[in-house]
Design goal:
Layout: E1 2-6, H1 9-20, H2 27-45, E2 49-52, H3 54-65, E3 71-74, E4 88-92, E5 98-103, H4 110-119, E6 124-132, H5 136-147, E7 151-161, H6 162-169, E8 175-181, E9 184-189, E10 202-204, E11 211-213, H7 222-226, H8 233-255, E12 267-268, H9 278-286
Parallel strand pairs: 1-2, 1-9, 3-6, 4-10, 6-7, 7-8, 11-12
Antiparallel strand pairs: 4-5, 10-11
Helix pairs in contact: 2-8, 8-9
Length: 287
């Protein structure tokens, strides 16, 4: 079985630039971070680690969309730019307990988003996402669409895991995937190992701020969410903090500014939402 990581850091940094005006670090810096992450994961999971590039996923999704007739509706804005979106994500509460799929921070409730599609006369759709894992979120969304007279005719994804794909296909919905894995140790988006970036980590349902819980301590649950064995959780989390320090320092250099915690587009769970420099805060976590 593979431990699959979908590389999406460049795409997330593009969104950071668009939303906050920060500059992206050089490609060399991103490549060094990615290589270090792969090597660290290999010390835990060995040769099972497999990295999948975002460009190959994006190009494959775009090619698959030419073969489906229904209106494309994207669930992940990183990979496909299309006219219609449903902003849905996995969420946790303030105790970091799962509460299923909800709307993203700042978006209308899922039922309202689906109702808006129906109001435009859209009756048949193709859902687009980066990954199908369990398939539960897609099936719940499909049921919600049905209540508003919208039929999901196909699903197009970058990566499909066997259990989730089979669940969706069993309901008569064809799945087109760029990459398929029958079973995996886990499948993780690269952005989930970084704090403060747009879309990083699990969405924390807090009504007044965009809060994310990335997959390392002290923000999230690396064991439950990223299958990191308990004996590796502490050292892996320290590694991730060091990676984040390097990334945000590089962003600061490229942007010629000091980034405060309050400047982040997605505040890491538990971090102060004030004028404390974010890199200094991360360094304090190591101490």
């Amino acid at each position: 079985m593979k431990y699959v990581v979908s590389e999406d850091l460049e795409f997330v940094l593009e969104q950071l630039t668009a939303t906050c005006g920060f500059a992206s670090p050089p490609e060399k810096s991103i490549a060094q971070l990615r290589n270090a992450l792969k090597q660290k994961l290999q010390t835990i999971f060995g040769s099972a680690v497999e990295m999948v590039t975002a460009i190959s996923m994006r190009d494959g999704i775009e090619a698959a969309l030419t073969q489906v007739p229904a209106t494309p509706v994207s669930l992940d804005r990183l990979y496909v730019k299309c006219a219609h979106h449903i902003d849905m994500t996995r969420s946790v509460n303030m105790a970091l307990c799962g509460c299923g799929e909800t709307e993203r921070c700042g978006s209308a409730p899922l039922s309202v988003q689906v109702q808006a599609l129906a109001a435009q006369g859209i009756n048949d759709i193709t859902l687009i996402d980066d990954v199908i894992f369990s398939g539960n979120g897609i099936m719940r969304l499909t049921e919600l669409c049905m209540t508003h007279g919208i039929a999901v005719r196909a699903v197009v994804v970058g990566i499909a895991i066997g259990e989730g794909e089979q669940k969706i296909a069993a309901h008569g919905i064809p799945v087109r995937a760029v990459y398929r894995y029958l079973r995996v140790i886990d499948e993780i988006c690269e952005r989930d190992f970084y704090a403060g970036l747009p879309l990083s980590g699990r969405n924390v349902t807090e009504p007044t701020r965009n809060i994310g819980a990335p997959y390392f301590l002290p923000f999230g649950k690396p064991c439950e969410w990223a299958s990191v064995p308990a004996e590796h959780v502490e050292t892996f989390s320290q590694f991730c903090i060091q990676q984040n320090i390097k990334l945000w320092r590089a962003i600061e250099v490229a942007s010629n500014t000091t980034i405060q915690c309050g400047d982040l587009p997605r505040l890491p769970f538990g971090a102060p939402c004030n004028g404390k420099p974010f890199v200094s805060y991360l360094e304090s976590l190591l101490r």
